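Dear Dr. H.,

I hope your travels went smoothly. While you were away I took the liberty of generating a structure for the chain from your last submission, since the lab meeting agenda had it listed for discussion. I wanted you to have the full record in hand beforehand rather than looking at slides cold. The sequence, exactly as received, is reproduced here:
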Amino acid sequence: MPLIRAAVVDLPLPDDQREAARALGRHLTRTGTAQPAVTAGLALLIRLGEPEDVPYLSVLGLFREFTLQAVDALDMMDRRRAAVVWLAVYARRDELRPLVRALWAGDQQAIRSELLAFPTGPRFLGAATARRIAEAARLPDLLDQHPCDTALLTRAARLLVRTGGARDDLTDLLAYRDAPTLYESVISRAGILPPTVDNHATLLSLALNLSSGSGVLLDWPAGRRVTLLESLARLLNEPPWTSLPDTEAGEADQRLRAGWIRRTGRRPFELLATPGGLSVEVVAGDPVDREPVETRILLDGRPVVPAIFARGPANSPEFLLDDGRLRAGPEPSEVQLAEAYCTEGCCGALYVTIRRDGDQVVWENWRRPSSAPQARELADYRFDAVAYDTEIARAEADRSWSWPARTTARLIKAGLVERPDLLSRWDAKRGWISSGFDDPDTTVVTFGYAPGLGSGQPDGLPLQFCWVVPDDGTPPETQAAAALRRLAEEDPKTYGQVCGGTRERAEELGFSWPDSA
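The corresponding predicted structure, in token form, is as follows:
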């Protein structure tokens, strides 16, 4: 079926044949009894559909084999109806069904009530679903109808945060045509929000995206994005808000967010004074939302990854900065700047070659999937070498974004790179080491084990182990030294847990297979 659609999309269509092609598309979609015929009709209406086609496309879209094409056609004519159809098919969580029913019926009172009723955490609500809810509910209009409704304003802000989530497909925010209007609606009313830790985190997330994320790339009137950032900066600098990061009591999520706000609170606003050229910003997203830590690269103020790749976040500072991958050496070096949120093998990655050319540094030979947004030939970039080296050195030295467990992980990794024998003596090999995903206040050390692995001659495939190191409140340097000392003195297989491989391999090597694996 994709071949049929591609053929129709590329079909030359003179002006004097458009009416006949539109009539054919309607005939095929309204009377067709075979999938190829209906698919061809939908492809024609994507190009030629008119408002009278909306009811028919809405019904066809409820059949999964036609949903995406019907939604594409509806997006050209009636964005709200396209979003409702998409949600009716793909928003399968039970908690969302009452909202979808209200949206389908157009019951405005029920829409407002149901908008407030479902969870908005990242595991429940992805970027695509958040965007379609915002489109279907016409959130900017709804906020205009209820200008003093703080609960609705909070929910609108959360949906905007989730639409721009860095861990998801970054194209959803860029595809949301009303995103600038919704940013305007939310930020202009943010002063009526109660100054809570959660609201502070939501507004800070919006600011981070507006300053260095995909929000920069929206179609803004001249100067408007900066004005909105300045408005957020003033609000979050007022005493009721500045006192929030000092809050230590409360639930774990509140403590996580309070610590993150303390570390991150001024970062998006400091970029306002950054000149053009190359800027490298490490951005740690909301830890409760499990947002990634990214090395955001901006060229003349525009973030590179969402602009030319958009399949996933920029790579971590441990990968790009700690290992010196962005440095310009005497030989050209190809560097992966980002990987798709699924995996590179599925949806690709973004690469660039970095080389030094006299008194300049050159970024060239960009490599990315041909299906990436704006998949055209990318220009080379040239930087003054002194300015480039200075900016990379500054970014490598900046640790203000980090927190104890993340710093402990970095120090443990550095110790194991320096002394690989700490693991090889146990026939183990270093794996991924970072802060925990489910609990960012822990350090997770992973390693592989197989008999003979330490000597470079493993007997069979390695079994994967995880060792979780809780933050005990002592300095990261002390915690890392204690962890390295334990690795030197005790076999880590006696306190690590099996977390990868196969049950058969675990049993063969005498280890229990975890129930959760």
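Two observations you may find useful: The longest strand covers residues 349-357. The chain has 26 helices and eleven strands.

With kind regards,
E. W.
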